[in-house]
Amino acid sequence: MQKPVALDCLQLPKELRLMLACLNRHDDEGVPAHDKKWIADMNWDRFLQLARHHRVYPVLYSRLMRIEQHGIPPQVIRALKQEYWHNTFRMLQLSAEMDRVNSELSEQNIPTLHMKGPVLAVELYGDVSLRTSGDLDVLVPIHRLVAAEGTLRKLGYVKDEYIQSVMNDWKWRHHHTTFYHPDKEIKVELHWRLSPGPGKEPTFHELWERSRISHHTGNPIHYLGTEDLLLFLAAHGARHGWSRLHWLGDIDRIARQSLDWNRLSLLLSKYRCAHLLGQAFVLASDLLSTPLNPQMKRLTFGCRPAKLAQDALFYLRQMVNLHTKLLPADVALYHKRHLFSLMSAQQKMLFIISFLHPYPKDIEILYLPKMLHFLYFPLRPFLWAWRKMSKYA
User: Fold this and answer.
1) How many CA atoms lie within 13 A of 51 on its CB side?
2) Per-block average pLDDT, block size 10, for the chain (393 residues)?
């Protein structure tokens, strides 16, 4: 039988390798005792920095409390404990706000699917305190988007008007808009797509028909079905280079659940994303010792899943934060190429064709009245060339 290719993890920082060893202990045997000199030379500030960056400190602290802590200084445990309790209070606050937002949208007859946040923490970890969430992600039908935005504004949220659009390209170039509550310091990402386009994905109606209901907050909250959630998490993690380990932790958790492989196989074939799930399983298996059943292993076979997984180690080695406003030039170029390598052949074709559609930057170079915007299509190659020449000049 064909075997999946093992990743080359030797270049990962020793602090990250120790953290992975801690996260891998799903029993009570304790962290494997390492060479004393290796532990003595550990940069514990770096260890904590990595735990915060990868947002795994809740699970890490919970795991260390149950196992033997070979050589880990007490001050490190105390720092993790502080982060753990801070996250617990934050997740309780997000849970309350999730219930409030969901109730208000329901009263306006706006169907809502929750994609991550506290509902995902309970679903995958069984405890809201064991996963971090920076915001609330909700998916609504695109024809109800304006009504949903109005509801959030009534709740005190302010829209971040960062999206520039020409000829309604926001509908497929982007996938969410952001709202922020200045008093509660809570961010809500209002989605109309699972991922940015161009590309084919399930309709809201299809996702709704397969959705599940959580009663975590007492009121019914709809969230993605198991197979849809797995594919969404795999695509989301891949798009971000798996630069945070807690996304991979989600894959580890959901891989241990019961999956409908008939449904999953149909979705993988329809949306041509088997390589993304294969990448996720290679990474989860090698880094987090996720057990893979025969169906999962088959997705890891071949060169492409292994290469994509190996390429993702770039983000782990350098502790890349893709949310940094100005990425280093080498990281930005690597990420641009990696995103293209993740696309299916159909997505690559659509992506290349999408360059023919006008961009907001074209309006900055040559302003035309809205009734003449159709002229941007034939002018697009010339405007692109002008912008490139101006940049190099």
Assistant:
1) 29
2) 66 90 68 58 93 96 78 90 97 96 96 95 94 95 97 96 83 92 96 92 97 91 97 97 96 96 96 96 95 95 94 95 90 96 93 87 84 84 79 57
Tokens of 241: 């280079």
Pairing outcome for strands 136-139 and 212-214 = unpaired
d(CA 166, CA 258): 44
- CA 206 to each of CA 69, 141, 228: distance values in angstroms, whole numbers, following the listed order: 47, 11, 10
Contacts 24+ apart (CB under 8 A), 363-368: 363/166
CB atoms within 10 A of CB 333: 11
Beta bridge partners of 137: 189
8 A C-beta contact, residue 309 and residue 283: yes
For residue 329, give both structure tokens: 């030039």
How many Cβ atoms from other residues are within 10 Å of residue 158's Cβ? 12
Q: Give Cα 351 to chain centroid, integer Å.
A: 21
